[in-house]
């Protein structure tokens, strides 16, 4: 009931312009925040109504090693970073999704996305549900797995789904966020390749793009992947941020190696037309999916 | 226990050669069966150990209209068609997956796939779980939804997952079949475009390919999609049968308009190496996926 009353505050719009800030990060968090705020202003002036920053945008990707010193980079939500972004959001009259290294309690941290609306209000937080751990992506050392579940946030510019990086590889995450009503799935991201992977880098990028476009197709929603760019330590972050439409069609794509802000108009009514033509949600066998909550069935 | 004993009969092999029979269908079922049997023999002689025929291979795609007369095309499993295929399978020393219009009882029909091993034994049946209904794909008129759940069949050439056509669009189907231990997902298929869709045909094929390759990526398994080809009534079946590897890489692809049998060697040990590099199964949030069994959560 509360939810229905809340919805009534936001009549459904058919068009939203989104801004994807693909940026590089320096060693100084303060400078990264200043740069991000400038880019929010630029994107807003170009018409963006919802702006997404990359994962953990305020610092370099510290998970390349396991070092307790890095916990100093974390901060609360709300906190000084979300406060600064709130001001930028209000000033630009734009919603912002920002990847934050969240300090929840002493010794308890999350990889989170804060959602701030165009009035500057903190609408909510998503905590990354799937935490990777691979050589030089030692995230399990830093982040507790999210415990808020999957999320879609009602804003005046549509229902925004938030997922983070490693979540990209999980159809369940995209499905659940879409079932919550999300019309656009935002994926703040930090993904790249190591020098020794140069040969397979293209294949990795292709798989990364393919599976996210597929989430769009399966659910009939827009997908916005926002990656960082540039070399940090041993990783070449591959940029290539993109927006795909509800049948997986590529609407815009950034370069693999430059800072760039994509401004993309999304016609949300195309979600209806796509789902009419490809009514996947109608035919789901919800009576037969229980095994999805098992680790393995073989 | 029974399952474990069964497994013991089939030591895990690291290599299997699969054959995808992309064929066109005439109006005479008997001729289609004869053609399929000849193609099974050809594929076996080229080294195929598991051969997959298209969906409902014995007839033209009758679901283009709703006509009770078409129920006459259905047959039991086992029945004369699976008997004929069993003989061909044994003769060629090859397993066969065959799309059958199954008559289960008077007035009760399924769109099924029969799995026959290289000894000619009927290993089992999968009944299409997701039934489409779109203009000229009136499948809900003909087929009851499958009630056997998702399936992976143990054979001497690995654990074979069977899904059918519309199932292609459902990540849940691919996930559950993979969790059952399937190493290759076979999708016998009948998909095409109408003359009036010519402009969007390319985009449709692209989405069809993208989402299936994505199932391979998400699960670290091989995908084999086997489509029919040629014009029947109002539909141009687009062929383009393909095999992709466990990171979604395209291994082989047939033409959009010719009969063709793809023979593809699959290195099943690459499922290990891919899953080691991209350990998605390790990090699934099985505690948080319960909502998948809901129709909608918004």
How is the topology of this model organized?
Two copies of one chain form a homodimer.
Chain A (H helix, E strand, L loop, with lengths): L1 H7 L6 E8 L6 H17 L4 E3 L27 H13 L2 E11 L2 E9 L5 E6 L11 H4 L8 E5 L2 E5 L8 H9 L4 E6 L2 E2 L7 H19 L2 E6 L1 E4 L2 E4 L3 E3 L5 E4 L6 E8 L1 H9 L21
Parallel strand pairs in A: 1-2, 2-3, 7-8, 8-10
Antiparallel strand pairs in A: 1-15, 3-4, 4-5, 6-7, 9-12, 10-13, 11-12, 13-14
Salient structural properties:
alpha/beta; 7 helices; 26% helix; homodimer; 298 residues; six-stranded mixed beta sheet; Nitrilase/N-carbamoyl-D-aminoacid amidohydrolase
Task: Describe the structure in your own words.
- The structure is a homodimer of 298-residue chains.
- The relative contact order of chain A is 0.15.
- Chain A has one domain: Nitrilase/N-carbamoyl-D-aminoacid amidohydrolase (4-Layer Sandwich), CATH 3.60.110.
- In chain A, α2 runs parallel beside α3 and α5 runs parallel beside α6.
- Chain A contains seven helices and 15 strands.
- The N terminus of chain A is likely disordered.
- A six-stranded mixed sheet of chain A has the order 5-4-3-2-1-15. Chain A has a six-stranded mixed sheet with strand order 6-7-8-10-13-14, with helices on one face. In chain A, strands 9-12-11 form a three-stranded antiparallel sheet, covered by helices on one side.
- Chains A and B meet through α5 and α6 of A and α5 and α6 of B.
